[in-house]
Amino acid sequence: MPAGGGLPAFCQVTGTAVTNRETGKTANFGVLLLVNWTRKFLFEGCGGLCGVVFGGGVSTDALVKGYARAATDDGHQAFNSVFEAQWALTASGDPDYDAIADVSYRAVHKVVVKSKH
């Protein structure tokens, strides 16, 4: 996006990070990169149980202040609400500990490391 309307020039990069090599579990992410980056980085969480990259919309405040921004869906997609939790169960109704680990800590860690790289 070119600079304009008070916003600096930036681009949005989206991708997928592997969160568990053994199971092939992944998390989607997005990074907003400034053309004239100030070496500041902001990882932004999402509301509820997540499931949406940039779930609260793209805040422009951080971009104006020179921060590159990153966010993740925490390894699952919310289709109706960020409060749905079907992703936390396997097809048989047992807890999906791999998915729960992503939401609890692992997806954020993996995306932050990849985003900073």
Briefly, what is this?
The chain has 117 residues and is of the alpha+beta class. The protein has 2 helices and 4 strands. 32% of the residues are buried.
Write structural notes for this entry:
With 117 residues, this protein is an alpha+beta fold. Helix content is 21%, strand content 26%. It contains two helices and four strands. It has helices at 61-64, 97-116; strands at residues 10-20, 25-34, 40-43, 67-72. It has a four-stranded mixed β-sheet. Helix 1 (61-64) links the parallel strand 3 (40-43) and strand 4. The chain is elongated, with a radius of gyration of 15 Å. The two termini are 22 Å apart. The model has no long low-confidence stretch (mean pLDDT 90).
Give the low-confidence spans. none
Largest sheet: 4 strands, mixed
State the total count of DSSP E strands: 4
Share of helix, binned: 10-25%
Highlighted features:
117 residues; 2 helices; 4-stranded mixed sheet; alpha+beta; elongated
Topology:
Blueprint: E1 10-20, E2 25-34, E3 40-43, H1 61-64, E4 67-72, H2 97-116
Parallel strand pairs: 3-4
Antiparallel strand pairs: 1-2, 2-4
